[in-house]
Amino acid sequence: MSEEKTTQETDAWFTLSGDVNSDMVHRVFEAVSGMSENGVETAHVLIQSNGGYVSDGLCLYNFLSNAPVKFVMYNAGAVASIAVILFLSGTRRYASETARFMVHKSHATASPGARPDALNIIVEGLRADDARTESILRKHIELLPEQWAIHQYSDLHLTARDAKVARMINEVSDFSPPKGVRIRNI
């Protein structure tokens, strides 16, 4: 059997879009179960997400980083907030020329009239989330000191070219499934 035929049989192509939340976690768990059962070795996943819940993004990052399938991630539009952490679970990562990334610190809204002890709990939770996500960012990417400074207090936007310099992606390249393959939506 030719190498090209073997690659086609062990690679599969997927799209994943929407908010990073418990519904996405469930969909990804189900999809990876199917991939494993069907002998998929490499899953090419196009992600389109403006983010969502930190805990769900961290769960997906940890799950996909240790799954029995290798993930190749693509950004063809926008991957933002906690979706960037999900994106970083890929062993190889690509972005289209016109794609963008955005990372920022965690945020929350307190109830009107919240008491100081309740506010303190919210602040401690945000600090814990920021420590967890920043450790993953630092493991995978190399931002300039000026970029880390922006990230400290604001949204940091990266073009595909910026992401390449920061090692967030391997190359600027499009999600291009081979003609005739089935593309599944997760």
UniProtKB/TrEMBL annotation:
SUPFAM superfamilies: ClpP/crotonase. Keywords: Membrane, Transmembrane, Transmembrane helix. InterPro entries: ClpP/crotonase-like_dom_sf, ClpP/TepA. The keyword Isomerase does not apply. Pfam families: CLP_protease. The chain crosses the membrane at residues 71-90. This is Peptidase S14. It comes from Massilia atriviolacea. The lineage of its organism: Bacteria, Pseudomonadati, Pseudomonadota, Betaproteobacteria, Burkholderiales.
